[in-house]
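Table 4 source record.
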Amino acid sequence: MQVRYDAVILGAGINGVAIAKNLASTGKKVLVIEKNHIASGASSHSSKLIHGGLRYLEHFEFSLVREALQDQEYLLQTYPDLVKLHSFYLPIYKNSKRPVWMIRIGLWLYSFFAKHGHKAIELSKEDFLREFKSIKEENLKGIFKYFDGKTDDYALTKKIAQEAKETGAEILEQTEIKTVLTDDEIIKIQTSKGNFETNLLINVTGAWVDETNEKYNLPSSYTIEKLSGIHIVIDKALVPHPLILETASKRIFFIIPDTGRTIIGTTERSEESKIDDIKVNNEDVEYLLRESNRYLKTELKREDIKEVYIGTRPIIKSQKHPSQMSREYKLDLHHLGENRVLNVYGGKLTTFPSLARRAVDILVKR
């Protein structure tokens, strides 16, 4: 027996459940199929930030920053229990890649795009060091304070999934897709929990998007760069507020307090393996410890690490170095007879509201 749906969505990460919620709200019968559990991928393995991407301004991605900050404001207003505005601190040292004047201009522009109304300010070294007692003073030139959002990524994704269900969407977890058969009239999906039919298949599998398209012979216009973001979790609070620092190679990393513990990350390791085979390695952990210890008065050791986690981000592949590739998402729609296949490439935790709205606009309103 084949159960018919207006749309079948593959993947129950933040973007998948947000699209399901928005589609169901238009009266569509929607099914989400997830091979693991809700938010099992990068949606629960991020830096837990709801931010515009201050560093994207360096690459002149103004539209991405503006959209992300608009989404940030929406999330701050809509989910105040899950998304909160925090003070972020950005110390500038003598060997910093980005000079004080550049940071000043970037933060002015960032504050201009932001909707929450809080402006960035410069602090004295004395005020900063009085609060951040664990941070070294040597070679410190200046400090900026600005405001950005922070969340519990897993709880936020679960909340959106619950809203999707309340709106009428169905979500099947721990469900294996066995076959996807497509002709000009219908798409048939055979799974471990039943067989389904639809004329609209939406691939929102995140870092698995290429593997899914290849396995089920689905059309696609892009491919992704798989970038692994590794975080270590320290079982104590090292800093009172989120801190943005530079690595020795001039990359950005975070030290973020999180309810009595500290999250440090992230890496940007390009992957060639299949997503399910990607693992944290010893070099990742040593890298984050080494970079953190360049700034901390008391050196961190391996035994201080409570947890290590990894989330693989799907970045649309280009000729640029992975760290320079755009974080913008693409909605890739294909028509196959009476059927449509939509692939979602990329997407940040912050921008899921606008991504879902745009997807529904493409699929329904037009």
